[in-house]
Amino acid sequence: MTVLRDEAPFYVGVDVGGTNIKVGVVSDHGNSLSYISYPTDAEKGPDHGIDTICRGIDTAVAEAGLTLEEIRAVGLATPGTMDIPAGMLLDPPNLPGWDNIPIRERVAERVKRPTTLQNDANAAAYGEYWVGAGRHVHSMVFWTLGTGIGCGIIIADMIIRGEHSHGSECGHIIIEMNGGRRCATGQYGTLEAYASATALKARCREALADGKESILRDWMAEGKELDPLLMAKAAEQGDQLANDLIMETATYMGVGTTSVLHTINPNMMLYGGAMTFGRHDTELGRRFLQRIKDEVKSRAFPIPYEKTLFDYATLGGDAGYIGSAGYARRKHPGNE
User: Fold this and answer.
1) 5-127+317-331 CATH fold
2) What's the rounded Cα separation, in Å, for the pair 182 and 261?
3) Which residue has better confidence, 94 or 175?
């Protein structure tokens, strides 16, 4: 491919997930020049994973028509738990066995480029802030709705990571004081325990076990897998149970959003991830966002509600690697 040299310096972003490792080369202007994805195969351990990361970097750089010497820095984004200043993975639930790994240094030693480490949700938030839906705002909160509930907070180009690398973990705020549902971390009553895709499926199975009528029962009997996509299809066909559960999920998100709105008072609340029901492109996606807004309006102070933008993210699955490249750019600008 033809590389626009006036977009130098160039950065590599790596988004390490429990399922896939995404790698892309990103220009100083935020344009993606190449992209590649490999299975993480997390069960094969961190050595295999780091080999995959470095192979992905080499391949993405070559496909962008560049050499590693032309890469200013590499940005890694991984799931927590982590020690960001030390560049360490500590005990990431999505990467079992990858414990106490100095991943930043190990990658830097292999590729011979300055390397940064950031939480994956924070990296995705930074991508949206840099070149996505939040590119015109001063501050934003980015929610990722999927298997769990991730969150990233950006204020004036600064990622809120906290003193111990656990800042912005808003999926674990408590919305039910008296016990409540249990999330994957073992906590009870968290937003994630109610509003994640995992929780949505669990609530649906409980409703079906209680005898609630739904086309989902027939579809599951035919061997179809229960997930938010199947529930969205049912809701779009007029299934009352699927619709009610999805809107209830939006209500829970509105409760969590209100707490963070009152804490941060940002310009924008942004929603992304796999469970956004088609975003603005579908009637269900539009209703989902509106229900979140309606719940926030009923609970929040009027002025911050009226002055806050509520919208869907625009970078999709690219936000993580673009944001990790953007964070590397912030830490290692071209004029150094």
Assistant:
1) Nucleotidyltransferase; domain 5 (3.30.420)
2) 24
3) 175
